[in-house]
Fold:
Amino acid sequence: MNIFLLEDDILQQQRLDLIIREILLEKRWSVKSMITTARPDYLLEKVQETVDQNIYFLDIDLNGEERKGLEVASQIRQVDALGVIVFITTHSEFAPITYAYKVSAFDFIAKDSPVDEMKQRLIDCFENLLSVRSTGKKEELFIFNNQHTSFQVPFSDILYFETTDISHKLCLICKNRLVNFYATLGEIENLDPRFFKAHRSFVVNLENIAQIDRAEGLIYFDEDRSCMISRRKIKSALEKMNTLNQVFQKN
Structure:
């Protein structure tokens, strides 16, 4: 799991960081990374680079902006639909309006809570995240490693990869999040037979294609998400999808 702590009061930040580290030590829970910062932009940048079970502890009032933490949570939800979001704040009165930000906060914890109470509430948050992970069905993972980055995501979540404005930087579009990393589409296509370069800017996961529109030259994954396919690639894509279906039926 990865832990993100966003707090602009340095004393509160240090207090929370210490309590969280004590919990991890006592429970012997392993963590891939822990990001502690006062900068929302830095936290959001790191979220884009991190793929795993994530938990976020966010202050609401940041740098004098009364609802900045809610805005940050909303941006997190755009790339991580399953992460556990917890607000640690003096503004518990904002709890009823979080639905408007569509962030599905797991808990609101008051900053002035006694240490023992806060510690138990934090443990509850971690246990919620870990229980979801342990009870979830085991899925085949796509594991990517190179000199720049490493991550893993379930194959069933991968829709497509697309190029970005930055040379050799790709964006992986999953069902519930986005991942930015450095590689080329050619490298990605060669990693698995389910990956198919449908266009000079896109490699798709053939397993998650819902429809190929020949007239529009588009691949649809669901009602909201699609990408382009070169018309000369349509026949090859359909043939490869058919081959994959036959293989899976035999298995």
